[in-house]
Structure formats: structure tokens, C-alpha cells
């Protein structure tokens, strides 16, 4: 019976599946396979039996391995590792000579040495044409310079996370899932960059592990901050607890009550029970007793009149007028000389007017009191109002 083999070409790489063909392979062995890049040596990490429907067609869906690895192949792998370390040192030396703003991360040498890949990180685009010429002149093979991100850099190098274990990307993650700040908000985490960021400086990959569970929990929960009618009366949802699968409610009596999701589904959208209504009434009665107004002073209206007379004697209050009436009186105002309360302007002869402004003929106008008397005598109801002088606009100064 044929087998399906899960093969990895490096510790942090993805798992590729091949058919065992006529060979009997055990987990942990090394095999030689044909890839698009050439011959490669891989490590078997997984073995599963092929279904019976595909026994007749061995090559359906999976390529067969080339052969099992021998001792000479393992020696060639060790030589390639030594070559990759030397190439790493030489490439860093060339980068320093050309003064390129890039950081070399790792060097990968293919099993048959048909190609060498140099992985690096850089903040922007790098002109490395002269660097490639130096590497081709030194190693006489195909050279590829591949720019990677900070997450792939951490995956290749490995590091210890905040939890004290090896980073997930190095240990078992093979593909990166996009992580957003919305995930941290839905999980009620403190939005502190040092707490929710990993070694690479990006958001923690483990935020995506529990996101599916939080989404299902929020679908079952009511909206936080909204009021609902339940058997307990009108309640407001204060917060939700993912780990306890519970809700915290604020009742009409301003008491917090914690209920589970199942209990919430039973009491929501139902009229309040008699027990809840009785409790609300008792609480409201207690509130009325606590907030009762103070009693009136003894004596009735006579006491209030005495209090009113004492208030009238206090400074700043209304006082009795000279005629003995108890009405509030305003202080007598001095009559104004003119409409604006300004004294009359002196005329050309030097005498000051008693009333308003001089008219166009040059003669002083009559005061307001004289105008009123003449108007009353002539039978006019209202005195004529003088027009307000126009304000002249200031013209811009000529330069």
C-alpha cells in the first residue's frame, strides 16, 4: 500500500506532500525528491496511508520521491551548510564595502548547488547590482537576492516570546495570518504596544488563534450599553465575560447582577415578573422616604409673614417707600439733559445749551422737556425722535 509523505526542507519551511512509490519510508528518514528548483533533500515529518481509491494511480495528486538518501548525500548536506556560512560572511563583507543599507539574514544553498539564495531585510529598495557581480564571480553559480519582512526574519532566526516559549512562527506556524488592532479590541486587551506586540514589532500572531471563539461569543451576546426588557424589569448590559460566558446587568434599582448566556436567553424580551415588580416598588418607596421634603414651620401664614417682614429689613432686599406702601420702589433717576445723557454742547457764542444739539440753521434746539410740553399742547401723542447719526466708514489709508 502506497504512503503519502509530509516532507520539510528546513525547520521553518512548509510541509510538502509526496507519494512514497515503491519505497518503504519511516518517519524521520531523509529522501531525495525532484522539485521545480532541482533536486532537493527533505526530512520526512509525517506519514499517512493513501486512500484505497488512489491505489491504482500512484501519481494522482502527489509526485513520487526520487530515492532514499544515503551517507554520501548527508555528507553533501554538511558541505552545503559550511558553504552557506562562508557565503554569509563574504556577503556581509561585500555589503560593507558597497555601503548598502541592507541586513543579511540567511543564506540557502540547494542540494545540487545549482542555486544560492541570500535573504535580507531593508527599509526600501536597494541597488545591489554590483553585489550580485561579486557573488557570481566568487561562487560561479546562480545567485538570487530575496527581500523579506520582519516576520519572516524572526521565523528564520528564532526568538523567545513574551510567554517564555519559542515564537510560534518558528515552532509550528508556516503561514502568516493578517492580524489587526480590531482583534485586540474585541478581546478586551489593553492597547499597549509593548503588551500586544511581538519580537518582530508587529501585532502578536496568537491574537488570531482565539479570534474565532470571540466572534462566536459576541454573536450570542447582546449589545453592551443597550437597555432591554426582561423578567427582571428594564436592565442595561454593562459588560460581558468571555471566560465565564456571562453578562453583567444593571437593574432599575441600580444593582449589578451577573447572569449566564443561557439565563439571558430565557429572561430576555419577557414582561417583568410579579417578584421583580414588588421589589421595584419597595425600592421606590424607600427612595421617597429618604428624599421627603422638610415640614413647614409652626404658625402657618403668620410665621411666613414674619419671615417676609424680616427679609424686607435685610440689606439688598426691597424696602418700603416714603408713602408707606409695601411695594418695591426703584430709586429716582436724574433727568437726562439729552437722549444720550450728555450735557448740552456750547454754541458759537460760548453759552452752554440746556437741551439738545443745535439744528442746521445754527440755532440751539429746545430741550426735551420743552418738546414734550409743546407736543402735549399741540395734541401730539408721541414726541419726535431724533435720528441716530450715521457712522462713517474708515477709508483705507493711501500709501
Explained architecture:
With 399 residues, the protein is of the alpha+beta class. It contains eleven helices and twelve strands. Helix 1 runs antiparallel to helix 2. The chain starts with a strand and ends in a 21-residue tail after the last helix.
Could you name the key traits of this structure?
399 residues; alpha+beta; 12 strands; single chain
Q: Layout of helices and strands, plus pairs?
A:
Blueprint: E1 3-8, E2 16-19, E3 30-35, E4 38-49, E5 67-68, H1 71-98, E6 103-109, E7 115-121, H2 129-139, E8 142-147, H3 150-157, H4 168-171, H5 181-186, H6 193-196, H7 211-220, E9 227-230, E10 233-241, E11 246-250, E12 256-260, H8 261-267, H9 274-290, H10 301-313, H11 368-378
Parallel strand pairs: 7-8
Antiparallel strand pairs: 1-2, 1-4, 3-4, 3-5, 6-7, 9-10, 10-11, 11-12
Q: Largest sheet at a glance?
A: 5 strands, antiparallel
Helix fraction? Answer: 25-40%
Number of helices: 11
Number of distinct beta strands: 12
Ranges with pLDDT <50 over ≥5 residues? 54-59, 299-327, 347-356, 372-380
How much of the residues is beta strand, in percent?
A: 15-25%
* Strands in their spatial order, largest beta sheet: 2-1-4-3-5
Q: What sequence of helices (H) and strands (E) makes up the elements? A: EEEEEHEEHEHHHHHEEEEHHHH
Distance N terminus to C terminus?
Answer: 105 Å
* CA-based shape: flat
Radius of gyration: 48 Å
